[in-house]
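Retro notes
What went well: the complex prediction finally ran end to end.
Inputs used:
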Amino acid sequence: MKTLKYSKATNYALHTMLHLALSNSTKPVGVQILAEQQKVSPTYLSKILTKLVKEGMVASASGANGGYSLTKGWESISFLDIIYAIEGKSSLFDCDLNHGPECLIQKVMLTSEEKMEEELRQQTIAGLIAEMTTT
Amino acid sequence: MKTLKYSKATNYALHTMLHLALSNSTKPVGVQILAEQQKVSPTYLSKILTKLVKEGMVASASGANGGYSLTKGWESISFLDIIYAIEGKSSLFDCDLNHGPECLIQKVMLTSEEKMEEELRQQTIAGLIAEMTTT
DNA sequence: ATATTACAGACTCGTAAAGTCTTTTATTAT
DNA sequence: ATAATAAAAGACTTTACGAGTCTGTAATAT
């Protein structure tokens, strides 16, 4: 089963965000460094990073001494934000069979999904770092 | 994005279980009837049903007047049980990059997933029917 | 014996993730 | 200016798996 699984890209994105947050972002970090840590090709990772840039949570700088850095307000970026940026915002479950106006099964599936999202909305990269440093 | 989505099979399974529960199961229901309702081929649906049989939540009877019916104790079958039967029990997220013994990202993802499962464990087909009849 | 119905397995098809390669664009250093 | 650096864009390949078909076999009632 490959469905009902986060893509690898999401994993890369989460780790990249954590890495950027940890490297106290006075200077941007090049994709080579980020890619090396996660053992993934720079070109592939750059495509993922571009998505994060377009969502406004990462800033990019071309040219020498360029690279990626977190944008202002990054402390409030949640896991859900990052996941949405990569996986999209669509629901895990759609009842295609259209039988009646409201499918009760759909409804149950949706509320369960919202429980997970609620948790992911509360978890932030910043919170993760706080947890790392206090222990 | 096709990942991070329930398979269609899960949708079929859930609706089939509901249908079986509604047809007060004195006699088993043939796969043709079940398939017709959901506009899916009988042969394909039978493969899904076989999985449910193997998990012990559905009984099957070959031959004339055969078909499928719910097993005893079906009232306690949860959404999660059905989902597990089709999608498998593996986690939505695995941090493949092995950096240190415990990945904090993995931990967050897992607990969020458990929130969803907790809800799906409480929701039953029987509960759904109760909701339908009381309104 | 025959009709009916579930089970099993091999098979096709389409699509999307995962990743590569090449080119272009933007920025800095010299 | 120009060369070097680094991100962005896009076409392309590969691979895997969901989704579904087809064929045949096993079991059971009439």
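What we learned: The first strand of chain B starts at residue 58 and ends at 61.
What to try next: split runs per interface for comparison.
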